[in-house]
Amino acid sequence: MNNEELRKRFNPDGSLLRRQQLRMLDILLEIDRICKKHQIPYWLSSGTLIGAMRHNGFIPWDDDVDIEMMREDYLKLMKVLPDELPEWLALQNSDTDENYFFFYAKIRDRRSKMLENTNYDRMWKEQGVYIDIFPMEKHSIGLHKFTEKTVGHMYKIWRTSTDDAKSIKQVRRIFDFNNRFLFPLLRFFCRLKPGKLITSGMGIPYHNRRYEDEIFPLTTHVFEGHEFSVPGKADAHLRHIYGDYMKLPDLDKLAPHVAQLELFE
Fold first, then answer.
1. 105: containing domain
2. For the chain, where are the alpha helices, taking DSSP H only?
3. Which of 6, 161, 192, 221 places its Cα 20 to 30 Å from the Cα of 87?
C-alpha cells in the first residue's frame, strides 16, 4: 500500500487520530522552537523517526511522538521549559506531577484528555495528548538492564494495585531511592570509566544500542512538511535497531496506545 492508501485507511483528514497527530505536531513545533532558541540538540526517534524516513510524516496509524537527546541537554531543557512553554502546554515529570514515576518527561496538551491502555496515567495530574522526551546516556547495556530491574517492581505494583493511595506511596519509595541515590552513584562510576554505547537513561525500560557516529552530527529530514532534527545516519541507525524498518508490519495486528481521547479545541 502506498502512503495515500494508508492515510485513507488509518488517518484520513478529520479523523480523531489525524487530529491527535496534528496536535502532537503542534507540540513538537514548540519543542523544536525552544531547543533552537537555547541551542539544545535533539533528534526524532523510534516510530517518529521511522515515520519521517518511510512516510515523510507520521506512520499513518501512529499515536505518539518520541524525541531523544543526551542527558546533559535533557537537564538543560527541563530547566528552561517552565518559562518557555505556552499556557496550553504542560511539562510533566516527577517534579511537576507528584504521581508521575517515569524517568523521562512528557509535554502535555492541556486542551485534550487522553487515557492509555496501560492505565498508568490514571492518577496523573496531566492527561492530555503528549510527546515523550527521552534522556540518553553512555553506559553498558548490562548496566542499563540492571537499572531496569531496580525499578521493574514499580510497574507491577501499578498494574495490579487495588488501592491506588497505597500503591502510590510504594511506587514513590522505589522511584526516589533510584533517582536520588542509586542512579547518581552508578553515574559516578560511569564517569570514571566512560562507555561508548548510547542507550536510554537509567531506569527507562528500553535498551536498544545507539552508536554515536550514526547519530552525530545531526541532520534534518522532512516530517509533516517541516524540517526536524534526525540522526546523521538515520537509515543505518534504524536498521541496527529495527532491521528492515521500510517493510510494513502486519496491518491487522496493530496495537494502539490510546484507550480514550477527547480534544477540546
1. 3-136+208-263
2. 3-10, 16-37, 46-55, 71-84, 141-160, 164-177, 183-192, 212-215, 234-242
3. 221
| Number of folded domains that form the chain | 1
Q: What is the pLDDT of residues 69-87, one digit of tens each?
A: 999 999 999 999 999 999 9
pLDDT at 265 over 80: no
Q: Is 12 left (phi over 0), alpha (psi -120 to 50) or beta?
A: beta
CATH number, domain containing residue 61: 3.30.460
> Of 179, 187, 189, 123, which Cα lies nearest the Cα of 150?
179
81, 34 Cβ separation under 8 angstroms? yes
- DSSP-based three-state secondary structure for 81: helix
Confidence at 196, pLDDT banded by 50, 70, 90 = confident
